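Supplementary Methods, section 5.1.

A reviewer requested that the exact input to the structure prediction be made available. We therefore reproduce it here, unchanged from the version used in the analyses.
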Amino acid sequence: MLCSSVLDRMASRKLIIVDVILAVLGVILLVVGLALFPVFDKKIKESIEKSVRLENSSEGFETWKEPPAPIYISFYFFNVSNAEDVVKNGSKPILKEFGPFTYREYRKKTDIDFYENGDKLRYREQKYYTFDRKSSDHDENFEICTLNIPVLTVATSVRFYGYGIQMVLADVLDWLGESLFQCHSVKELLWGYTPKSVEEINNFLKNHSIDLKINFTFGIYSGPTANGTDTGDIDIYTGVGDINKLGLVDTWNGNSSLPFWHGYCNKINGSDGTIWHPFVDTSERMYIFNTDVCRSIYLTYSKSVTTSPSGITTYRFTPPSSVMADPRTCPDNRCFCSPYDVNGTFCLRAGVLNVSMCRQDAPIVMSQPHFFEAPDYVDGVVGLSPNAAVHQTILDVEPFTGVTLNASKRIQVNMYVQKLDSYRDTQHLNNSIVFPISWVDEHAAIPDDQAKKFYREVILPMKIADGVKYGLVALGSLLILCAVVILIVVLVKRRRTEKLEVSPEPDERTSLLSGERS
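The structure derived from this sequence is encoded token-by-token as follows.
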């Protein structure tokens, strides 16, 4: 019994030594792991900020200057199949969508100039488009029957002049055979065409001292957005002074506000949608200055998306319905009414925006494709099927770096058609119509090889750093837990040993005597 007690004490001493070693080692690992959290976080933050800033030769600058993701722009056109019935009987237009007609988009940034100690830069950007027949359903020469947009624009603008002038123009248009609907090739509708009767219409306007300042060469991508034209001077923040301002537009052609709207709606907010500040949060609004709709819009977090096959998790942002909510019930949007209406009574309803003020007074209305989130206009024509998965603008942003890995900007061009004394083909319309012409999907996604490279060079090191931090904390905590368990075991064994040593050993003689007596 004595030998057993000695052996137990020796074993307990060894366990205590092991216990102390484990405890000390566990505490060291735990402290080191916890200490690495701010150290690693700071190093990663500094490294990301340095790489994404727009500075000469920085990785962010080179990516911004020449984006690695190929950009494509796909057009879908609406062909009207009952044009004669619409003109003669005021029937609902029956539309059929054709497309995509896809172009590869190339961007070239020029005249780049850093100023204000590198905190801002000024640049111009040229865009070029080449037709991609393999990605298109039809050739560029495919004909679409749609509204006679240049002539409708003239007739709409002349409505502000005297009734006599409107009637004379109506006679001129009848004489010229300018019907409400005409057929043109996709190439003409996109890049521009001039009506055959433009000279006669111009003479009429001049003879009546009417200066509409209208470009009679119509095309969705003609004029300021024509192939090879540039955006004008754009001044943006580089992120050098404040990383949270990275990519934000400061001025456009020297102006910090727009002349098209009223009050704060003229303010230029956000980036151009291709560059964002790092460390994006799900609670923030992502503002974009969108020249297509002549205003700034915002997107909000929708959900997290994991890209395949790279496995990178991104935040998906989409425009909420409040961006183009009905001005009658959303006072914040009343300053986008054109003309301005303080009560929103005469504004267009939810989901559409009158942009005639920035489109040479052409009655152009912008919306999301198929009038997505514009329920009051879907039934104005036949053939639309709004679907968020196909028609909503999306932006997938990697939250740590702010890099856009996937984006689709989707927008629809419409014309506002109403009864006009100056255009007899509109006389039988029962109601005004927001008539869809075409919708556009400008999309870009980082290629798989680039995504994998991004994962290896950016995401993987951060995951390794997180693994080291959390691994040390977990291992340290485990060792401390083991030390506590060993200590409990040692204490329990020691108590049992002490109890055995205190208990009296039985006397053999007493037992024998007791047995004899019995």
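The radius of gyration is 36 Å. These observations are discussed further in the main text.
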